[in-house]
Amino acid sequence: MISEQSWSMRSDRVDKKPRREPPVDGQHRQWELTMDFEDSSNKPLLQIDRRALLRGSIGLGVAGAVGRIVQPTAAFAQTPRRGGKFVAGVKSGSTTDTVDPTIMLSAASLFVSYQFGNRLLERTTDGKLASELAESWEPSDSGKTWTFTLRKDVTFHNGKEFTAKDMVYSLNRHRGPDTKSGAAALMKAIKDIKVDGPYQLTVTLSAPDVNFPYLMTNSSLIAQPEGEDPAKGIGTGPFVLDSEQPGVRYNFHRNPKYFRPEQPLFDELEILVINDDTARISALLAGSTHFAAELTPNLIGRIKSSPAVKIDVADTTTFYYFVMQTNQAPFDNPDLRLALKYAVDRDLILKTTQAGYGTIGNDNPINSIYPLYSELPQHTYDPDKASFYYKKSGHSGAIDLYTSESVFPGAVNAVEIFQQTAAKAGITINPKRVPHDGYWSDVWMKKPFCASYFGSLATEDQAFTQPFASDSPWNDGNWYRPDFDKLLAQARSEPDVEKRKALYHDAAKMVQEDAGHITLMFAAAINGLAKNVQGFVGDHFHGEAKNFARCWFEA
Question: Which residues neighbour 264 within 8 Å (Cβ) at sequence distance 6 or greater?
Fold first, then answer.
């Protein structure tokens, strides 16, 4: 479900293994240092110096580092122009969705949140930590205390000035025993958050965390005004939410008081929820939308032949998986869990459902995009091992596996392939296809075995904490290992990079061998755009939703 280090990376050199992606038409672009913006009359609007600085080495876990604004660099081929209405087709939306940041569950909600909201910090498309609402951030006490100095030029959509008091209120909504936030497990490390002035706040942690600022990029941690209903979608972001029909559409207009005056460039924005993959592509090809999210790889051929459409591809940390609830029979049996992990042909599922886009999963949440990644022996399809562990488990009878086509591209087909490969090991998988509407409220974390995905995991710690920590609300495998929790706490406060890498290696091994995730693959972000849309840059950390404010229509 729902979306780090100070290193730079591009999609053509992320993987240590040979890439599986076929050539595509889309090219990634990045911002240049100084840019001229034009309106529809071709008159310059403003000139922005995008020079930035990240001082120190926060991302490498060195105490005493100070962070400041960073933006990507390079040049666009076109001059940005203001005006027009942009229509985006997204998936994974439901009538039960809400824009309250503490209970956002779907990808559609994530897209919407990036339009109306901002976080303290963000990730650039090349993986660096960058400013949003925090102008600077500085650690003390070996990373146990972090002080954030806020921008002074920010107002909420309701006209209220943004201050540290609002940010503290917003962060605290994700803390405490009653919160339902997916970020709650991350926030448990916080001992106290206090206002130190109108534009400064201090976060005190229960233990040092050398990468804590990266956690402030979490998609849920949106600044909202204290005293307003969080479900109204009032934020500080580039677009103002005018109306919403959950599971159907969201309408916005440009925020004329946005603190980044060069953004957004579109006058209006409409987000349409189009869960059906074919319908979403058809809308793009017909010109009804300018953007189609999460394209089904097997349907990309239709787009590549169109002169009016282009494709953008980026490797990501988003992973697709099947999850077993390890505290419920029959999945409380570790031998059965291992049997199912060996009964999956990940390579076949990747080639069949993703047309080769993406990389193979290995039953843990870390891939080579993360700087502290270390390889583990690959869980490969092995019917003999699967049969051995299955017989050892003593289980018999069919195993229900719930899925829906919109969970991830090819999710239904993936279950069908699993059914076939598991049968060769004597294991009967019973596919249970259900409608998407209500999937995240009625199936995920409710049924003992189902398909799911995770994205927007900013650091190694976050990737292990949100899906697997014992106190995480999104521990969807109900996997509770105190020794694993202790390992994460130790890694969180370890300033030595190599020692921290070794701890994460041990954490990954523990998850791979015992947890309830069968990680199929790490997805590629494949998005379709109208040919006249410029400025879109896909990135590795599921941040493509942020780019609508940076896009424009070429002349």
Answer: 238, 239, 254, 255, 258, 548, 549, 550
Report the distance separating Cα 392 and Cα 148, nearest Å.
54
Report residue 224 as tokens.
């909202």
Q: 256: which 2 tokens?
A: 């004329």
Cβ contact 409:296 at 8 Å = yes
Which pLDDT score, from 0 to 100, does residue 456 have? 66
Instruction: Based on DSSP, count helices (H) and strands (E) in the chain, helices before strands.
Output: 14, 21
Cβ(446)–Cβ(323) below 8 Å: no
Fold of 315-524: Dipeptide-binding Protein; domain 3 (3.10.105)
Q: Per the structure block, which two tokens stand in for 326?
A: 């390890």
DSSP state of 358: S
Positive or negative torsion for Cα 4, 9, 10, 15? negative
Tokens of 493: 């406060």
Q: Are 163 and 197 in contact (CB under 8 A)?
A: no
How far is it, in rounded angstroms, from Cα 356 to Cα 8?
25
Which tokens in the block code for residue 103? 């209970």
Query: How far apart (Å, rounded) are the C-alpha atoms in residues 24 and 45?
Result: 34
Q: Which two tokens stand for residue 58?
A: 């926060």
pLDDT of residue 371: 84
Residues in the chain, pLDDT under 50: 1-77
Question: Which pTM value belongs to this model?
Answer: 0.69
Label the pairing between strands 239-245 and 249-254: antiparallel
**Bond preceding residue 495 cis, omega within 30 of 0:** no
Token digits of residue 57: 């080495």
Backbone angles phi, psi at 38, to 5 degrees: -125, 150
Tokens of 238: 């580039």
Q: Locate 106 and state its tokens.
A: 């779907």
Radius of gyration of the chain (CA): 23
| 8 A C-beta contact, residue 462 and residue 426 | no
The answer to whether residues 218 and 236 touch, using CB atoms and an 8 Å cutoff, is: no
Q: Amino acid identity, residue 45?
A: L
CA 100, 106, 112, 118 torsion: positive or negative? positive
Residues, the chain = 555
Token representation of residue 475: 């521990």
Domain boundaries, the chain: 315-524
Q: How many Cβ atoms are within 10 Å of 27's Cβ, its own excluded?
A: 12
Yes or no: say if 381 and 343 are a contact pair by the CB < 8 Å rule. yes
How far CA 276 is from CA of 104, 294, 308, 411, 416, in Å, comes to 21, 11, 21, 13, 19
pLDDT at 554: 93
Q: What is the pLDDT of residue 324?
A: 98
What residues does 193 pair with on adjacent strands?
203
CA 214 to chain centre: 13
